[in-house]
Amino acid sequence: MDVSSDPYLPYDGGGDNIPLRELHKRGTHYTMTNGGSINSSTHLLDLLDEPIPGVGTYDDFHTIDWVREKCKDRERHRRINSKKKESAWEMAKSLYDAWSGWLVVTLTGLASGALAGLIDIAADWMTDLKEGICLDALWFNHEQCCWGSNKTTFEERDKCPQWKTWAELIIGQAEGPGSYIMNYIMYIFWALSFAFLAVSLVKVFAPYACGSGIPEIKTILSGFIIRGYLGKWTLMIKTITLVLAVASGLSLGKEGPLVHVACCCGNIFSYLFPKYSTNEAKKREVLSAASAAGVSVAFGAPIGGVLFSLEEVSYYFPLKTLWRSFFAALVAAFVLRSINPFGNSRLVLFYVEYHTPWYLFELFPFILLGVFGGLWGAFFIRANIAWCRRRKSTKFGKYPVLEVIIVAAVTAVIAFPNPYTRLNTSELIKQLFTDCGPLESSSLCDYRDDMNASKIVDIPDRPAGTGVYSAIWQLCLALIFKIIMTVFTFGIKVPSGLFIPSMAIGAIAGRIVGIAVEQLAYYHHDWFIFKEWCEVGADCITPGLYAMVGAAACLGGVTRMTVSLVVIVFELTGGLEYIVPLMAAVMTSKWVGDAFGREGIYEAHIRLNGYPFLDAKEEFTHTTLAADVMRPRRSDPPLAVLTQDNMTVEDIENLINETSYNGFPVIMSKESQRLVGFALRRDLTIAIESARKKQEGIVGSSRVCFAQHTPSLPAESPRPLKLRSILDMSPFTVTDHTPMEIVVDIFRKLGLRQCLVTHNGRLLGIITKKDILRHMAQTANQDPASIMFN
């Protein structure tokens, strides 16, 4: 090869060394265009190895390449370690890098705790605003308003002159039908106002702020990109609208959305640290810790939060993420405890203190509650998914504001007459969990008792009074109302959690069962099942415990959580000695629910939305091979590929414009079909654009070269474009006879986006994550076209 006829040799390998004795042969032309010195030419050769800006980033609704991100992070770590002994500044940078993980989770924990406290206080105040207002201090809710009053009585401790209902303010009547109707109208007015404001804010400013957010968080943690889902607008609007949605009295909770709020905080803070802002896989470690902090502040359950993140939402959970999740949950819980939003100096939402142990016989009703929880979960998932699918496929889905207004109106109209549905759902659960002590004045504790009962700490089992029977009827109506309304409420366009409504349904059912068992034990204490352990005049049965077990069972039936749920419930209530009943009920509800369908509500919504999520809990048992799933199929056009060194810039641009694939295998030649590597569509586009702007002589007819050495070109040919730096030289490959069971496992455990199929080293086809999801849908007799996103 005549060196003098090759004016572009410095560009041959993007950094190959050229012997100095060859440089004088390049002629004046070369020296002039490159600054006229050997130093500048060597510098230019170094420049050619510099990364192209934008290469290695991802488009919206695409999956990240976990393997590439991990390699990138290891490379960054090596670079920092190799430099840290050079100077004190490099050493400081290295320490900052090492500590940035702890810093980001600390900031996330602080922000999550502060926002949760703010949401709790605001939601309590606005919920009470539906009923009346505190004239002495407008910012006090009902309970705080009456704290300082000397005029409250024991029976009517919530009535004080400072607190005025709307009827008292507007028509000057505290009692009577006119007062009731006025309060009813104001209740509906405030409920509709709050719901309308919430849905309007979501629709106009942040459409991603609706729903619970947990299905999307799970999908994002599995490596999917949804831009804006964890952004500052979403955070701001979700925080405001969550307060409004809870205050409107809709059958929803704030616990699921708090996980979304915490993850938004984690995402925003991760941009302050280059280690996380430039690496999508590392960012997901922060989001795992943030979701633990979210559950920690939602329930006051730091350990439960860590287990929730591990069991329910995280896809990749290394040991250091476990420690950081633990720390984030601790910080968040500490901040929430400092704010003290419940005013009881406790972190737990529903503190319980039961004085009686549980007995072996009681496992039978506990397991029955587990069965009820599993049946409710299976019914709810099917009914809610059917309704959401109908909303998507009919005109009704085009009017989200109208839907929210209708649901809020129906909820308010039916809820007001029943004291148990009018209550804030968290307050209702608290009442149902509470044991009947001498200080309880609610109708659930209206037992007929002897005059000396108030002197005893453990009040014996007593016959139910008229108040208890009327309370049971009201609770039965409340149960039916909650079941129906929750189906229609979860999925509307306001922030809506599922934890609290599910727990309320379980707590109502549990309390009813508890009272029934208690009365059975009282009237039939001579039966052999009660005789051994329940004496006359003893306190044997605690109805509040049944409510707690029922709440756990129903939440387990809907979400299919097990370990984390039991821990959350005993942290939530402080009922540590009741772990065995909780475990029995939760396990039963999972088994019963799984008999009707293995996926929980979050997985069902992921499938409904068509997110590319490979669930690690699903088993793939079919005997298909990679060759059966790969594309192209027999009827398809041949696979779109790039060749190593005989395609021009124009050829590649045409291929990109004509196809919608996310990447292209690179082969040695069309004849040999030997695999060289894999180039991503986005990287190719960015690299070609960058070369056209920054490198002279790059035109449509320029040869594109992915090889290490540029082939010899005629003297008059335009300058070649070297794109070896964007080529993945080690793409994952399987042979055409690899069982799909193994391929699915590889995709799950390594988080792959695509995998190439070869036969004796020759490229046959490609399998993408979407192909696997379609194949799994087909084998499960589902619609493969439901996998919507790229």
TrEMBL record:
UniProt membrane topology term: Multi-pass membrane protein
Chain ranges passing through the membrane: 99-123, 187-209, 229-250, 257-274, 286-310, 359-381, 401-420, 471-492, 504-525, 545-570
Keywords: Antiport, ATP-binding, CBS domain, Cell membrane, Chloride, Endosome, Glycoprotein, Ion transport, Lysosome, Membrane, Nucleotide-binding, Repeat, Transmembrane, Transmembrane helix, Transport
Function: Strongly outwardly rectifying, electrogenic H(+)/Cl(-)exchanger which mediates the exchange of chloride ions against protons. The CLC channel family contains both chloride channels and proton-coupled anion transporters that exchange chloride or another anion for protons. The presence of conserved gating glutamate residues is typical for family members that function as antiporters.
Lineage, uppermost ranks: Eukaryota, Metazoa, Chordata, Craniata, Vertebrata
Location in or out of the cell: Cell membrane; Early endosome membrane; Late endosome membrane; Lysosome membrane
Span of domain CBS: 630-694, 727-784
Organism: Gopherus agassizii
Molecular function GO labels: ATP binding; chloride:proton antiporter activity; voltage-gated chloride channel activity
SUPFAM superfamilies for the chain: CBS-domain pair, Clc chloride channel
Pfam families: CBS, Voltage_CLC
Family, similarity comment: Belongs to the chloride channel (TC 2.A.49) family. ClC-3/CLCN3 subfamily.
Cellular-component GO terms for this entry: early endosome membrane; Golgi apparatus; late endosome membrane; lysosomal membrane; plasma membrane; synaptic vesicle
Gene3D superfamilies for this protein: 3.90.1280.20, Clc chloride channel
Protein name, entry field: Chloride channel protein
Domain of life (superkingdom): Eukaryota
